[in-house]
């Protein structure tokens, strides 16, 4: 168990009381949190924040949807 997991588990009891919703932008921070929640076996789905204003936005949306589908997230 790494340092982040050792910190997260005692401070995240509210996360295990039901399903959570992660606001996901495909940025580094939300991607890291996605993987941390998944590895911690916390039940969650994602809400993709998609504005379509950057050239990369369409590809990021596609990749985020594939990531969610692979892990059984909605």
From TrEMBL:
Gene3D superfamilies: HUPs (3.40.50.620). Residues 20-70 form the tRNA(Ile)-lysidine/2-thiocytidine synthase N-terminal domain. InterPro entries: Rossmann-like_a/b/a_fold, TilS/TtcA_N. This is tRNA(Ile)-lysidine/2-thiocytidine synthase N-terminal domain-containing protein. It comes from Nitratifractor salsuginis.
